[in-house]
Amino acid sequence: MNIKHIFFDLDHTLWDFETNSDLAFTTIFKKHNVKVEVNKFLNYYKGINQNYWKLYRDEKITKEELRVGRLKDTFSKIKYNATSELIDFLSVDYIEYLPTNNYLFEGAFEILDYLHPNYEMHIITNGFNEVQFKKIENSGLTKYFDKIITSEEAGVKKPNPHIFNYALNKANALSNESVMIGDNWEADIMGAKNVGLDVIFCNFNNEPVSESIKSVNLLSEIKKFL
What would be one Pfam family of this protein (predicted)? Predict the structure, then answer.
């Protein structure tokens, strides 16, 4: 591998989204006196949220429809009568509180310290601008990355080829000298492969994967490939 540039996904790859999201919901439910057991809510929310993000990636819903719809559908599922006003408050506060908790996956700093001296490193993320930059700064990741490319800036979302080509251009990188590291098979791995990048799949859920795809179960295992 003649790799000079590494592009990382952020959420679910370096930044422990589920842990940080759970903490944000605990905080805002208490703030707004939502009489729901947080774990019960999250049990349904996580799958609903994933489905909404898939629709968002596929350009089938707007950012606002994602932010409100995932809450509305979850409350409906658990039969909690949440007013439109409450859902609006929660959708705003969730985005505000989410980047105040900044747990990273095990080995994140260690692997970044290992890679940083030898590669130009960047982030490509489908997350919202107002949240992603706060996550990166608050969690101490800023110093590791040269370019931060968001879907809002690029105008399209992973796996759309344009966001990867946009990122390569912004980083002054060639596809055959670049690798994408991420957890989402469709958005990160297939999206990057389709424009000629090498890939490393963060297979934290131990899914069946073709031997032709480099994959790791822990961030520390990236050292096997770089």
Answer: HAD_2
